[in-house]
Design brief:
Layout lengths: L6 E5 L2 E4 L1 E4 L13 H13 L4 E3 L7 H11 L1 H5 L7 E6 L11 H15 L4 E6 L9 H13 L3 E7 L3 H9 L4 E7 L6 H5 L1 H7 L2 E5 L24 H13 L2 H18 L3 H10 L4 E7 L6 H5 L8 H11 L19 H4 L7
Helix pairs in contact: 1-2, 2-4, 4-5, 10-11, 10-13
This protein binds NADP nicotinamide-adenine-dinucleotide phosphate (NAP).
The site of NADP nicotinamide-adenine-dinucleotide phosphate (NAP) has 26 residues, from β10 and α12.
């Protein structure tokens, strides 16, 4: 069994696998029903492949519990060192309806519930989000989490989907943020224009989602007619809107053809090229790749075998340069209440 998979330091004392196993795909309501036992065995397969870092959230219904069951089932195997240690990254996402009446007790209850569900004494990384920045409270949430960190319940604090203006406010409060989880892919370059400089100044690492656009960035969609809603799952619904922002289906097809040529050259799949593209970007510590099951693990392991060279990047960036978006700061489009990106979201899952 080869558990050797590239790792990054999120901070000097904390290392993660460069591909993180994304948890949203296992949550209730994302796609099809999942088989719990199979999902637990799949987690073991990821860890055996060296993909030891898992991403989840308090709002991914049922996923923290599933990871907790996996850790419990293989407790002795972890203790004996037969399986390497797992890092679990969760999120703290207060419900939209709670924001006006938000309290420290509510934050603590969310964190305590995550601890209980995952079955650990301390959460490795808590990434927080605030649905509506016009409602005060996100700085309080940051302070609450910092206090819970001091109390030993949280190891590191991260954020997700904050733009530079609001991230700076959080940093000015003295809260130590080690990472920001953002959408970053061949289709979405918004982090470069917005948060990258601030992250450089504060040594904040990027953890990226959407690297495969929910599966659109694969051979499966080459030469296929433009799909329309209803799509197979929530990720595809989300990223079809990003393809529209990018410039539409024809330009997306041109991108897929370009990625396929690069993939053939390196004897890998389009997905691996798309993931590698993001991993080679500045400050990126990891790509969070969604997994319904373990069927893509062998392909993902091929990430170890190649790097994109300057000709590959020139070709890919040549297509990207024709795109018209998505534009604006990180998550700006998604935060527009009446916009099409916001309309597909679920705001009160806690
Ligand atoms: N903070 C946020 O707002 C936010 C938002 C979205 C996601 N996330 C996190 O990011 C994770 C990733 O989710 P995502 O929605 O962005 O999806 P994604 O990672 O872009 O796409 C995942 C899908 O790609 C396909 N796939 C995976 N590896 C592959 C490979 N090597 N070759 C071919 N196909 C492959 C699989 O589809 P099939 O199973 O259909 O083959 C999989 O379900 C989530 O689980 C979650 O943890 C965070």
């Amino acid at each position: 069994m080869n558990r050797d998979f590239p790792r990054s330091d999120l901070t000097p004392n904390y290392s993660i696998s460069q591909v993180l196993k994304g948890g949203w795909q296992l949550s209730e309501g994302h796609s099809q029903m999942i088989d719990e036992q199979q999902a637990i065995e799949d987690m073991r397969s990821f860890v055996e492949a060296g993909i030891t870092t898992f991403d989840c959230a308090d709002i991914y219904t049922g996923v923290e519990e599933l990871i907790g069951k996996f850790l419990k089932k293989y407790k002795s195997t972890f203790e004996s060192g037969e399986l390497p240690a797992v890092q679990v990254h969760t999120k703290c996402v207060p419900d939209l309806d709670e924001l006006p009446i938000f309290t420290k007790a509510y934050t603590e209850a969310l964190v305590d519930r995550s601890l209980k569900r995952i079955g650990v004494e301390r959460l490795d990384l808590v990434q927080f989000y605030w649905w509506d920045l016009s409602i005060p409270g996100y700085l309080d949430l940051a302070q609450h989490l910092a206090e819970l960190q001091k109390a030993g319940k949280i190891r590191y604090i991260g954020v997700t989907n904050f733009d530079a203006v609001h991230l700076r406010e959080i940093l000015n409060e003295g809260v130590q943020v080690v990472s920001i989880q953002v959408q970053y892919s061949v289709l979405d370059q918004r982090p470069e224009e917005d948060i990258l400089e601030l992250c450089k100044q504060h040594d904040i690492k990027l953890l990226c989602y959407g690297t495969l656009a929910g599966g659109f960035l694969t051979e499966r969609y080459i030469g296929v007619k433009e799909p329309h809603e209803p799509l197979e799952n929530r990720s595809l619904t989300k990223y079809k809107l990003i393809i529209d922002e990018f410039g539409g289906w024809d330009l997306f097809q041109e991108l897929l053809v370009c990625l396929k040529a690069v993939a053939d050259k390196h004897k890998v799949g389009i997905a691996e090229v798309a993931i590698k593209y993001v991993l080679q970007k500045q400050l990126v510590a990891g790509a969070i790749v969604g997994a319904h099951n373990s069927k893509h693990i062998e392909k993902i392991k091929k990430l170890k075998t190649f790097e994109l060279d300057k000709n590959d990047l020139k070709d890919i960036n040549g297509v990207i340069s024709k795109s018209k978006g998505p534009k604006g700061n990180v998550y700006y489009l998604e935060r527009q209440k009446d916009g099409k990106h916001a309309k597909i979201m679920r705001y009160n899952l806690n």
